């Protein structure tokens, strides 16, 4: 039987997608950031990037929630074979499976097509780290269940309610690469990978795997030193000013900002959070939290937004 891992493009061979890659790396280094949502049209390598990242980190594919999943499959139910034999034996759902996996990730493709009820439950578990099943046919006390949720969506097929969008820690807009050079690099990278992935003597594959190993070690070291990175009062003030300046509702936004900036600092081996770290994560944390209507669509991030981020951070530093 073919090894599904062998068909996964190495993370180092993914071309572009810098914002999604940054979001995934930050969420791995600091799980407190919460889930990551990748929003983009079909064919923009959202799933490829997520699988490549998970394989690089854990050597496995992420636990993946299928479209049309039932409550029992998500939360846990009963083993059908045992029920048919007259015995009731609990079966863990995919939330528990994700928490027990090496990657500690639950991947939901086209999450905007999943029932809001299930999305809300999943996001609640991600936020609290606690799963409590209280249903008509099964009751189970609180269990610690911690994993990172990664979802993808195509905005052309509908959005998520703002209340659900807000509960994702980071949102990475994924767009197609329109310049000839990047498109050429994508084609060349994929074709060479497909031609050489089964060759144990391929220098191309050996180099790609070596770069993946180096990146895994770098992120693991950043995760280990996260707690030593100082959250300065200036950095916290910058996050608060950004929350006010962008008219964020509630306080989740500024908390995610400081947590993501701390992870960014750890990745860059800094000893404290600098204004540039806050700047680098601002779009990912603020894009989906700006004041808007209830359409559930993601407003475009413009150069004016970048300018406003810079002005608010500089105002804090003065």
From TrEMBL:
<feature type="domain" description="ATPase dynein-related AAA">
    <location>
        <begin position="36"/>
        <end position="168"/>
    </location>
</feature>
<dbReference type="GO" id="GO:0016887">
    <property type="term" value="F:ATP hydrolysis activity"/>
</dbReference>
<dbReference type="Pfam" id="PF07728">
    <property type="entry name" value="AAA_5"/>
</dbReference>
<dbReference type="InterPro" id="IPR052989">
    <property type="entry name" value="Mg-chelatase_DI-like"/>
</dbReference>
<dbReference type="InterPro" id="IPR041628">
    <property type="entry name" value="ChlI/MoxR_AAA_lid"/>
</dbReference>
<dbReference type="Pfam" id="PF17863">
    <property type="entry name" value="AAA_lid_2"/>
</dbReference>
<dbReference type="GO" id="GO:0005524">
    <property type="term" value="F:ATP binding"/>
</dbReference>
<dbReference type="InterPro" id="IPR011704">
    <property type="entry name" value="ATPase_dyneun-rel_AAA"/>
</dbReference>
<dbReference type="InterPro" id="IPR027417">
    <property type="entry name" value="P-loop_NTPase"/>
</dbReference>
<protein>
    <submittedName>
        <fullName>Magnesium chelatase subunit I</fullName>
    </submittedName>
</protein>
<feature type="domain" description="ChlI/MoxR AAA lid">
    <location>
        <begin position="237"/>
        <end position="291"/>
    </location>
</feature>
């Amino acid at each position: 039987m073919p090894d599904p891992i062998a068909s996964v493009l190495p993370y180092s061979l993914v071309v572009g997608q810098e914002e999604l890659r940054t979001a995934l790396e930050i969420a791995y280094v600091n799980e407190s950031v919460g889930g990551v949502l990748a929003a983009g049209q079909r064919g923009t390598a959202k799933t490829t990037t997520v699988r490549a990242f998970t394989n690089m980190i854990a050597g496995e594919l992420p636990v993946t929630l299928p479209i049309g999943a039932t409550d029992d499959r998500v939360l846990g139910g009963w083993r059908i074979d045992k029920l048919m034999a007259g015995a009731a034996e609990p079966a863990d759902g995919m939330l528990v499976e994700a928490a027990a996996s090496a990657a500690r990730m639950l991947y939901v493709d086209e999450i905007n097509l999943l029932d809001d009820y299930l999305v809300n439950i999943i996001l609640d578990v991600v936020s609290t780290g606690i799963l409590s099943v209280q249903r008509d046919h099964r009751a189970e006390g609180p269990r610690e269940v911690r994993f990172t949720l990664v979802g993808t969506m195509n905005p052309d097929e509908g959005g998520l309610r703002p209340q659900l969008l807000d509960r994702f820690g980071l949102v990475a807009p994924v767009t197609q690469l329109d310049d000839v050079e990047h498109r050429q690099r994508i084609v060349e990278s994929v074709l060479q990978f497909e031609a050489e992935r089964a060759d144990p003597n391929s220098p191309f594959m050996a180099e790609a795997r070596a770069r993946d190993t180096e990146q895994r070690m770098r992120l693991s070291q950043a995760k280990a030193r996260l707690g030593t990175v100082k959250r300065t009062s200036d950095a916290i003030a910058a996050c608060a000013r950004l929350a006010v300046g962008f008219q964020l509702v509630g306080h989740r936004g500024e908390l995610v900002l400081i947590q993501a900036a701390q992870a960014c600092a750890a990745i860059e081996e800094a000893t404290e959070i600098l204004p540039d770290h806050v700047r680098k994560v601002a779009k990912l944390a603020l894009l989906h939290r700006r004041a808007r209507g209830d359409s559930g669509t993601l407003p475009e991030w413009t150069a004016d937004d970048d300018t406003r981020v810079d002005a608010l951070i500089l105002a804090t530093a003065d």
